[in-house]
Design brief:
The chain is built from 6 helices and 3 strands. It is an alpha+beta fold and 110 residues long. The chain has a domain of 73 residues: Arc Repressor Mutant, subunit A. The radius of gyration is 18 Å and the shape is elongated.
Length: 110
């Protein structure tokens, strides 16, 4: 029995170094949603993901500081309209993250 458990442990692949900024669940949801569109409105993204204003804003700031997203504020009438899009760097980082996770999960024993 011990040898069987030892063999199963050896079959589990090692998780490769991944982008922990993207790996955090809230930011993963943000980037995954932005990956499939050209640009979104802040309110649309907030409602789609189900985050509070402050929480979404905080996560977007971290992603913006990393160069993964652009946040543009425009005046629309008397209201501010915030538009968000994934940068080329953000797209590349997400593709690399996704590839590493796909490979890791694919290599798990069935």
């Amino acid at each position: 029995m011990a040898k069987e458990a030892e063999k199963k442990d050896q079959d589990i692949p090692t998780l490769p170094p991944i982008d922990k900024l993207i790996h955090e669940p809230a930011r993963l949801m943000i980037i995954a949603n932005l990956y499939v569109v050209k640009e979104v409105d802040f309110i649309f993204l907030k409602n789609r993901i189900g985050m509070t204003w402050g929480n979404l804003s905080s996560h977007l700031s971290k992603l913006e500081d990393a160069g993964y997203v652009n946040v543009k504020k425009e005046l629309k009438g008397k209201k501010t309209n915030t538009r968000i899009n994934l940068t080329d760097e953000g797209r590349k980082a997400f593709r690399e993250y996704r590839q590493k996770m796909d490979n890791f999960l694919k290599d798990l024993p069935k």
